[in-house]
Amino acid sequence: MTRCASAVTQGERVLDAGAGEAPFRARFGHARYVTVDDGRGDARWDYGALSASADLMRMPFRDGSFDAVLCTETLEHLTDPGPFLVEVARVLRPGGRLFMTAPQSFKEHQQPHDYFRYTRYGLRLLLERAGLVADEIEPEGGYFRFLGDKIQPLHRYLFHKQRALIWKIVFLILHPFSMLFFTVFAPLVLSWLDPLDRKRIHTTGYLVIARKPAAS
């Protein structure tokens, strides 16, 4: 997301659609940063700092009012991703850019509002139908990073808090080693190996940079 923030120039209007608690606010401090969310995400989040609380299918902004739209890990939580991208295209000015991330392989989260996973081809199709041009659809890591993401929960499954007491006693000495190996060492080593995967057909998700045609 640092690369996307650096592509936004001083004073440009940026809409963070599906912002949640707006974790990228500081990175876009040089822009006029606006946030909108429907508040249906994580129940523990504080939505009090949003610029607008609204349905993402009908955002309360004029046509062409933003230079860029930011949408991170939101598309999977929408029941109608196609119409949402049409709405994104509407609020973007001609030539404006969309910076978006979307998962291909990730655990269920923010249940029950978790509906879809995406391939690069599905993302391109949705963008084209919305009248947007995909300049980049880049995998966020390859097979080894994918494997590192999948191996981290193994420690929690092996040493679940509700295990029988005898299990906890027998494997007490293994607990710190398991935690260190599965949550720190293995993911770190796998991330170092990730450049070995050139095809990157196994990935946790994609970074998308798209634009609204200037002739729109």
Would you mind describing this structure in some detail?
- With 216 residues, this protein is an alpha/beta fold.
- It folds into 2 domains: 2-141 and 200-211, Rossmann fold (3-Layer(aba) Sandwich); 144-196.
- It is 30% helix and 21% strand.
- The protein is built from 7 helices and 7 strands, in the order αββββαβαβααααβ.
- It has helices spanning 2-6, 81-91, 120-129, 143-151, 154-158, 165-170, 175-193, and strands at 13-17, 32-37, 52-53, 66-72, 92-103, 133-139, 205-211.
- The protein has a 7-stranded mixed β-sheet.
- It is globular and about 65 Å long.
- The model has no long low-confidence stretch (mean pLDDT 90).
